[in-house]
Design goal:
The chain has about 150 residues and is α/β, with parallel strands linked by helices. It is about 20% helix and about 35% strand.
């Protein structure tokens, strides 16, 4: 499971000209699910995400987590994060989980995130063509991969 975590001052998701989710200060997470992913990947990734110390403390040092600042979380499923570009110029998505595997894992990720944070989490629409707007704050962008724990 891969996540591109972006610290944002605000972010939103629109589908067919309808706003489906928006957040203020927090994280926009683009989530790529692969065939081999399961609950262990969700647990590891969520723990990392909510505890990333990338928000400024009173001294202007990145020392606070999403939980410390009561930040918002918006999670958008994005199979293209599983792209392989090793051969040629057309990405291969063979590692990306099929919808019947990915969608339940995405829903479980969202549910577990809400349980961990104790509040609602913003969501994209699985499988939909989405417009994602964000203001990357910093910019701060962190790449996490549950298969790369060391």
């Amino acid at each position: 499971m891969r996540a591109l975590v972006q610290r944002v001052s605000h972010a939103s998701v629109t589908v067919e000209q309808e706003l489906v989710s928006k957040i203020g200060t927090g994280f926009l997470v683009l989530l790529g699910i692969e065939n081999a992913d399961g609950q262990e990947d969700i647990d590891w990734l969520l723990k990392k995400i909510v505890n990333l110390r990338v928000f400024d403390d009173g001294n202007g040092v990145m020392n606070l987590s999403l939980q410390d600042v009561s930040g918002d979380l918006l999670v958008v499923s994005q199979f293209t994060l599983q792209a392989s570009t090793k051969k040629g110029n057309r990405p291969s998505y063979i590692k990306a989980a099929k919808p019947e595997v990915a969608n339940p894992l995405y829903k479980r990720f969202l549910n577990d995130a809400e349980q961990l944070l104790g509040r609602p989490v913003g969501k994209g629409v699985f499988g939909a063509y989405m417009q994602v707007e964000l203001c990357n704050d910093g910019p701060v962008t962190i790449w996490l991969d549950s298969k790369d724990k060391q």
